[in-house]
Design the sequence.
């Protein structure tokens, strides 16, 4: 079993295991990760955004492959829009336990213990939320993985940016995806991982432009260059200029990674073997091998940098989170002061408590009704406009009611009158007309009652 304080040899051996973050989770990192995890566990995230990592990239840029390499789980991949819903991947560290996962979306919660089922469950969730076509959905899919090989971390995979809709997609699919991505990456608590293939012009990458629009100084943006094996021969120096920040400068910089491709998956190359092959690729590459010493290549270098960047980001966010929590706490305290002590749990005290509350309520009503002695506005003065409006409404219905009665009498005399004299219609007919009229008054009467209750 891997020991947290083991030497570099143990770290190198375990580094290629699933969840390469774990090998870098040392003592100075752990407290900050556990703090954010604790805040999530008590529900703080419902009111405040907590530090997280969002993976952004153009369509088929290799986003899911990067997320897969970092988290150690296989996610849906292929051509076209693969990530059709935001996927929040929660990695939870356990000691000595087994791998298990829980996926939740739209009220559905499923648990499973086979890592190979992750892709199937995610696809099922996406089809449920976004349909079986090629559309997208804003609804969040949460996949929580508990494993001894990961650390407490939250990663968010977002749909790939597309420009031209394909068959079955709405014309504004590109705008829909951009709005969805911006909703996540604009949060100051989010680190943006911009994924760009090495064989495209980075200056024209929409994902990088979007990240720059919400983070102009690049303070929380890290660019990941994928597919280095597809770089045209002779174009390697251009890639080195990008990595060194000579084309588009980013404060967090660039890292090149070589993740599993579709051919590797077809050959059943495991994630651990893919990590080893990635290291061999960069060691043997004439142009990229010097970047190993600079920690600017390999998924493991990315994990190291991203872990430290996340901790630094948490440190920066903590003062803001503290202020927000205090502000929310003061708001709740102020709200609680408006309420008196709750009802007693002892049965013998419930009756006196209820009596006391009723007497208190009656006294308040009397005070509101007292003329000239109340600090508040007189209750009769407040209610009089409501009753006047209700009286006006009833008066307006009088004419229509009389017309309905006249029509009813005429219809009765024509179709139902027997031996009785004219205009002496059956009582049940009048009763039905009155009941129908009262039924029509029920909804506006309830509205008046609510208005009175609100005033009181």
Sequence:
């Amino acid at each position: 079993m891997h020991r947290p304080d083991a030497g570099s040899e143990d770290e190198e051996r375990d580094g290629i295991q699933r969840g390469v973050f774990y090998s870098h989770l040392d003592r100075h990192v752990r407290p900050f990760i556990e703090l954010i995890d604790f805040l999530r566990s008590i529900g703080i995230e419902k009111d405040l955004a907590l530090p997280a990592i969002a993976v952004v990239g153009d369509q088929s840029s290799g986003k899911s492959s990067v997320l897969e390499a970092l988290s150690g789980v296989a996610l849906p991949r292929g051509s076209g829009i693969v990530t059709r819903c935001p996927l929040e991947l929660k990695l939870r560290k356990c000691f000595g336990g087994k791998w298990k996962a829980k996926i939740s979306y739209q009220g559905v919660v499923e648990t499973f213990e086979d890592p190979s089922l992750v892709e199937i469950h995610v696809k099922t969730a996406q089809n449920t939320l976004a349909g079986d076509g090629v559309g997208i959905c804003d609804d969040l899919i949460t996949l929580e993985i508990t494993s001894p090989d990961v650390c407490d971390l939250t990663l968010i995979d977002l749909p790939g940016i597309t420009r031209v809709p394909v068959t079955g997609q709405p014309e504004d699919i590109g705008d829909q995806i951009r709005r969805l991505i911006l909703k996540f990456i604009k949060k100051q608590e989010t680190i943006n991982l911009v994924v760009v293939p090495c064989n495209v012009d980075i200056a024209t990458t929409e994902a990088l432009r979007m990240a720059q629009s919400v983070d102009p100084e690049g303070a929380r943006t890290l660019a990941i260059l994928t597919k280095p094996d597809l770089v045209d021969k002779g174009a390697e120096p251009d890639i080195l200029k990008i990595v060194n920040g000579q084309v588009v400068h980013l404060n967090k910089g660039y890292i090149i990674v070589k993740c599993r491709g579709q051919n590797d998956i077809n050959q059943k190359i495991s994630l651990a073997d893919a990590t080893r092959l990635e290291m061999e690729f960069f060691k043997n590459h004439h142009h990229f091998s010097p970047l190993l010493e600079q920690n600017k290549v390999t998924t493991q270098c990315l994990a190291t940098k991203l872990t430290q960047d996340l901790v630094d980001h948490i440190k920066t966010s903590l003062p803001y989170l503290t202020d927000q929590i205090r502000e929310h706490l003061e708001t709740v305290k102020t709200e609680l002061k408006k309420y008196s002590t709750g009802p007693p749990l002892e049965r013998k005290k419930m009756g006196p408590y209820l009596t006391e509350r009723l007497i208190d309520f009656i006294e308040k009503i009397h005070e509101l009704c007292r003329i000239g002695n109340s600090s508040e506005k007189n209750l009769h003065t407040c209610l009089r406009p409501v009753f006047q409006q209700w009286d006006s409404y009833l008066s307006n219905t009088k004419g229509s009611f009389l017309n309905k009665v006249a029509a009813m009498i005429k219809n009765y005399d024509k179709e139902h009158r027997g031996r009785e004299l004219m205009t002496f219609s059956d009582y049940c007919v009048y009763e039905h007309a009155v009941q129908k009229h009262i039924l029509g008054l029920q909804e506006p009467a309830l509205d008046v009652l609510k208005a009175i209750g609100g005033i009181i």
Observations:
- Strands lie at 52-57, 87-93, 100-105, 108-112, 141-147, 153-157, 190-197, 221-226, 254-256.
- The first strand starts at residue 52 and ends at 57.
